[in-house]
Amino acid sequence: MMNLHWNIQKDTKADSGVSFWRKQTTDIYLSPMKKQNKMTYIVRGQDMTKDTDMTVGNPFVLIGTFSFSLVAGSLFQQLYTFVDTIIIGKKIGALGIAAVGGTEWLIFMVNGLVIGLVQGFSILLGNRFGEKNEEEFSFYYKMSKRICIVLAMVLTVMFCLISGEILRWLGTKDEVYAMAKEYVYTIFLGIPCLTFYQLFSGALRSRGNSRIPLLAMTISSLCNIVFDIVFVNVLEFGIKGAALGTILSEFVVMLICGYSFYHEKKGIAYDHSCALNEKTVTIKLFRIGFPMAMQSFITSVGGLIVINRINQYELSFLAGYTSAVKLYGLLEIAASSFSMAAAAYVSQNYGANKTDRIKQGLRASLIMGVAVSLICSGIMVFGGRTILRLFIDNSVMMEQILGYGYQFLLILAAFFPFLYILYILRAVLQGINNTMVPMLSSFAQLMMRLLCATVLTKFIGCEAIFWGEILAWLFADVILFVAYKSTLKRIG
How far is CA 265 from CA 25, 44, 215, 270, 353, in A? Predict the structure, then answer.
């Protein structure tokens, strides 16, 4: 329920079935008119239905179309990392691939802290939008922005200072250490761009707007490819050039999403009369966002432990693992997109107190997610080896690298639907403000990866690292499913 004072005035003018007031004397106006069985809200002269209202309509259509936009945007995002790896592999060689691969989980840890926290903020923004409460939406956004400013400053300074020491702890091989340090240091200089891109795009998605993030990511990805070609191939900046291309593309996507958000006057408080307390809202933002940030952090710690173990094997294993992960990341896009769509859908319907629609949304997401995951499995099985060859130069290690990479892809393919189920279940729980269980499931994933990397490797060798990923998915799926059934009973 909204704790707001309603001052409803009689409609004096109707234009195309939507009511407007010339005199704006109240915070929120509710038109008594209906159009197509849907109440139209006017908030401070702004039509709340301009964005996608997911509290009405077919869940399959809503989630499917929303996901498609996100898939397309994320596809372009992963495409540039794909091309990035190809350029590095062909221009710098296996050492370059190994250097990038040895830093990926460290970068994911930092990015995950930012993305997880901001996604938590977007859940609460989605709740406010579902309630049709624009004033509180604005206030929550304002407090989220303040947190992001501090977060970006702290993380940039801290990880630029300690990244070298972390790489040493990971056991980074001497022959790739210098390149790895240069790459990760440059990437971390772009943390402010990443933070505010996530804030702007998350706020847009919370309102059901996936079009602008799609456009921004498309343009950014194309820019990144161009930057990579110029910096690595033409100017020959080496591994640093690839990192520069990444942070410049993040700057581009931040500008596009930020301009759109403010141009549409969304998230901007029209006055400062909101009765909410800053401290209370900040605590609530952290209560939802922090577990999501920790979820990513815990997952990445597991990844760092895995990299530590991988660094104890030959360089060809690390290069093969890295090459396979690039394709894995590309095919994982749809899972991430379905999860973001499900989170936006569920957060709005939870705010509107529509439990039945939450169930329908989960069912729709799972059907579409599993179908797409099976297609991805087919790509890994039948096209995996050919795709892996794109990353590898004609070195003496080529066949070894291909062997390790393709073996990993075959294992992933056999269980890929469970990854999609994990993403969707986790997003649904987050959408109903249950972020603790997803965090605990990430801890379970960590423990499983750790167990396989440290114990199982003694019995079956490096292949245990591949199986650790699968067992982590399965363990987390069980935890999330049980939590979902329990949470659903609680909310009715």
Answer: 19, 11, 19, 9, 27
If phi > 0 it is left, if psi is from -120 to 50 it is alpha, else beta; for residue 39 that is beta
Ramachandran angles phi, psi of 42, nearest 5°? -120, 120
Burial 345-374 (b: 16+ CB within 10 A, else e): bbbbbbbbebeebbbbbbebbbebbbebbe
Decide if 44 contacts 21 (C-beta within 8 A). no
Q: What is the DSSP letter of 406?
A: H
Question: From CA 305, how far away is CA 336, in angstroms rounded?
Answer: 23
Angstrom distance (rounded) from CA 387 to CA 229? 20
The b/e string for 422-436 (b: 16+ C-beta within 10 A; e otherwise) is bbbbbbbbbbbbbbb
Q: Name the amino acid, one letter, at 474.
A: L
Residues 344/205, Cβ–Cβ less than 8 Å: yes
**Do the Cβ atoms of 441 and 478 come closer than 8 Å?**
no
Give residue 308's Cα distance to chain centre.
25
Structure tokens at 216: 């921004």
Q: What is the secondary structure of 263-327 as a DSSP string?
A: HTTTT--S-S-----HHHHHHHHHHHHHHHHHHHHHHHHHHHHHHHHHTTS-HHHHHHHHHHHHH
Measuring CA to CA, which residue among 75, 96, 287 is closest to residue 177? 96
Please give the Cα distance from 104 to 433 (Å, whole number). Answer: 29
DSSP string, 196-221: HHHHHHHHHHHTT--HHHHHHHHHHH
| Mean pLDDT by groups of 10 residues along the chain of 492 residues | 35 32 30 33 35 76 77 66 74 75 80 84 78 78 88 92 86 82 90 90 78 80 84 83 87 88 59 67 83 78 77 81 84 84 84 84 90 94 89 71 91 95 90 82 86 88 90 93 83 64
Backbone angles phi, psi at 99, to 5 degrees: -65, -45
Name the token pair of 65: 């179309």
User: Based on the number of CB atoms within 10 Å of its own CB, is 85 exposed (0-12), middle (13-18) or buried (19 or more)?
Assistant: buried
The rounded distance, in Å, linking the Cα atoms of 460 and 411 is 15
Rounded-to-integer distance, Cα 343 and Cα 312, Å:
39
Ordered alpha helix ranges (H), 352-462: 355-388, 398-431, 436-451, 457-460
Longest dimension (CA), the chain: 80
CA distance 18 to 34: 8
Q: For residue 235, give the DSSP letter.
A: S
